[in-house]
Amino acid sequence: MTSTPEAPGSDAFLASLAGIVHQVEAVERQVAAGQIAQLRVLAQAGQLAESQTIGVARKVAAQDMALRSIAAEVGGVMRITDRTVQRRIDEARTIIEGYPASVVAWEEGRITRGHVLVIVDTGSVVPVEMRAEFEEAAIARCEQDTSNRVRPGLEILAQRMHPRSFTERHIEAAEMRGVRLVPGRDGMSDLIATLPTVIAEGIHDRLTQQARAVIDTRGERAANNEPADTDAATSRAEAAATDSRSTDQVRADIFADLLLAGTPALDDTRDTTAGPLGAIRARVQVVVTASCLTGKDDGPADLVGRSAIDAKTARVLAGDQPAWERLFTDPVTGTVHEVDTYRVPQRMRRYLQARDQHCRFPGCRMAAIRCEVDHTVDHALGGETSTRNLGHLCQRHHSMKQFTAWRVRQLPGGVLEWTSPLGKTYREDAPTPAVAFTPADTTPAEAAPF
Questions:
Q1: Tens digits of residue pLDDT in 151-169
Q2: Is the pLDDT at 271 greater than 60, yes or no?
Q3: Taking a C-beta distance cutoff of 8 angstroms, is the pair 110, 147 a contact?
Q4: Domain range spanning residue 255?
Q5: For the whole model, what pTM was predicted?
Q6: Residues near 358 by Cβ (< 8 Å), separated by ≥ 6?
Q7: Which residue from 103, 78, 99, 102 is spatially nearest to 88, judged by alpha carbons?
Q8: Minimal CA–CA distance to 285: which of 336, 354, 210?
Q9: What is the tally of structural domains in the chain?
Q10: Do 41 and 97 reside in the same domain of the chain?
Q11: pLDDT tens digits, residue range 319-336?
């Protein structure tokens, strides 16, 4: 016996969806309670091991033996190895003892496990005496957004609390750059390059652009508009007609072509002139404060959609740009008020990139430079082409807005209010610049993305 599918948007469909959402909420609360309870018990196990070595000579070795024994006992119940249990005990003590306010916020449902892990991870560089201050600010940010969205801002906050400048530590870390080959299975291997973030991001972005260019032109190449007597042209057309590679696969193939041959195999590079693929250059989106640009501040800048980068790299990138823009932001909230552009076409698009920073669907971190500019009210329905009716959406969420029951309206200040099929609303505030310079007076602050 088969059931008739419920029509999307019907009362029966919405009732079923509401029931599922309610169950998910209830399960999430139960899971969180169980996870917190397990952390507390594992932390107690670590504390018990430590208590067994009070007054014992060679305390470190004795405590390790006690911890191994306890971990083996617990591992028998959990059916995992004692090494895994010991690692979890250490992690539990770090969270329970080092970040108690985060655990309380998690228990109260104000933040999630993902938020706690981000706080712990980013807070590892913060001096112990400043951890409570960092934790308080981090929790406040986590209450406003998803864990993946808050990570970059928390990384920068933590780095600014570190006793040594981010630039100084980046210089030391860059000494560890290198390339490693890790043999895999079935004749495959991983080639891992450890590089400065901006370089790695640029490489990945260029490969992505080239891969999309290859995929988007499959039809044109298959049509083979070149002279028919060219065997090479016919061969390329046949290859294009049967090309079903994914973006990841094309990216990997171009990566290998560039390193082994210097040019992509599908590029029509001749002599030293770059063809369509070779002409593609990497793009990165960076927000850096005015004080950082002038060298007064060595704090990290924000590589939008990724993580923090050092001030020296940000200054080099800014210096190499033929055009950049100033953002005038509110000195308290950091909200963008105005963009003062220099030699920049498409002023409105540049403003929106500066305001939005990333896709404006709740939780999405796709950088604005890789998103589409969407009319909140469709242009075909009379929506105006102005900053009051435009926002960046990645392809996934742009399509979802068009073809599902999700709806969005734009409120003053660039705030997007999303409404789900069940009528739940989610406010997506215009992002606050992750790095902001607050002047001594009340004039707007300045930050420069490029």
A1: 988 988 898 888 888 888 8
A2: no
A3: no
A4: 165-182+189-282
A5: 0.65
A6: 149, 304, 305, 364, 365, 366, 367, 368, 371, 392, 431
A7: 78
A8: 354
A9: 3
A10: yes
A11: 655 545 555 555 445 545
